[in-house]
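User: structure tokens for Helix-turn-helix transcriptional regulator, please.
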Amino acid sequence: MKTRIQELRKQHKLSQEELALAVGVTRQTITSLECEKYTASLILAYKIAKYFGLSIEEVFDFSEVEEF
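Assistant: Done. Predicted tokens:
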């Protein structure tokens, strides 16, 4: 799943560590999300989106997610 996390983080001049602390995860989790090696839980996706004042859909691209 593609995300805009890195783009948003850089726009806000945040380090991975600063964003991680703000949403309650490790820097490694932010790195993994940015490299698309990890998919955020719904709760984490909500925290990240809320932190940037956006909806989840504005941060995470669900176009490649398979439908039922």
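User: Anything notable?

Assistant: The domain at 2-60 is CATH 1.10.260.40 (434 Repressor (Amino-terminal Domain)).
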